[in-house]
Design a protein that fits this description.
The structure holds two protein chains of two kinds. By secondary structure, chain A is mainly beta. Chain A has no helices and ten strands. In chain A, strands 2, 4, 5, 6, 8, 9 and 10 form a seven-stranded mixed beta sheet that branches. The model of chain A has no long low-confidence stretch (mean pLDDT 97). Chain B is mainly beta. Chain B contains no helices and eleven strands. Chain B starts with a strand and ends with a strand. Classes of the chains: A mainly beta, B mainly beta. Chains A and B meet through strand 5 and strand 9 of A and strand 5 of B.
Chain lengths: 108, 121
């Protein structure tokens, strides 16, 4: 099983700042099968990024993904009020599909 | 656009079986090209992939739950279902169904709103 580790656990930032979230895998993940999700309280997760760097439909271009192998990054270029949420990475190329524990981005 | 909606009992007694259904609208589960998936999330915790069923009926499960989980599909009603046997308090969670296209490999692109299941006597 591929274990995903996310850091930091919590990121405290102000609106307008840049957020950099990390996802590290215990073994190599095909970039084709690495996704990022955003979850706000009481809501289902929402797909942001698939294939490590492709934005899902309707996702603003302030969200970007990068990385390969075992190290992946989600960057939010300028935080908007609605971006304060929990972010999860997921690999779906190797069974069982696994999620990271999440990074909470909260308001400083 | 595909939409998913979970349904089922919100309260299940310990040692009994949890049964949930996901109704798919805006698309057919028998048309192919998707993994129809279940994910759960205990309160205040992260996401756990439970498993999925493909159009052909083939299934894959999380080994941590495999002995207790069954995912099945009802193509006539455009639904897929989850059964978890011998539940305990540890199975208390919000349960989500989601679609996962095989190609392009978008990941879990459409989610239901989730349904809360509490295991308690």
């Amino acid at each position: 099983e591929i274990v995903l580790t996310q850091s930091p656990g919590t990121l405290s930032l102000s609106p307008g700042e840049r957020a950099t979230l990390s996802c590290r895998a215990s073994q190599s993940v095909s970039s084709t099968y690495l996704a990022w999700y955003q979850q706000t309280p009481g809501q289902a997760p929402r797909l942001l990024i698939y294939g490590a760097s492709s934005r899902a439909t309707g996702i603003p271009d302030r969200f970007s993904g990068s990385g390969s192998g075992t190290d992946f990054t989600l960057t939010i270029s300028r935080l908007e009020p609605e971006d304060f949420a929990v972010y999860y990475c997921q690999q779906y190329g190797s069974l069982p599909f696994t999620f990271g524990p999440g990074t909470k981005v909260d308001i400083k | 656009q595909v939409q998913l909606q979970e349904s089922g009992p919100g309260l299940v007694k310990p040692s009994q079986t949890l049964s949930l259904t996901c109704t798919v609208s805006g698309g057919s589960i028998s048309s192919g090209g998707y993994y129809w998936s279940w994910i759960r999330q205990p309160a205040g915790k992260g996401l756990e992939w439970i498993g999925h069923i493909y159009t052909s009926g083939s299934t894959n499960y999380n080994p941590s739950l495999k002995s207790r989980v069954t995912i099945s599909a009802d193509t006539s009603n455009n639904q897929f279902s989850l059964r978890v046997t011998s539940v305990t308090a540890a199975d208390t969670a919000v349960y989500y169904c989601a679609s996962c296209p095989l190609w392009p490999p978008y990941g879990l692109d459409v989610w239901g709103q989730g349904t809360t299941v509490t295991v308690s006597s």
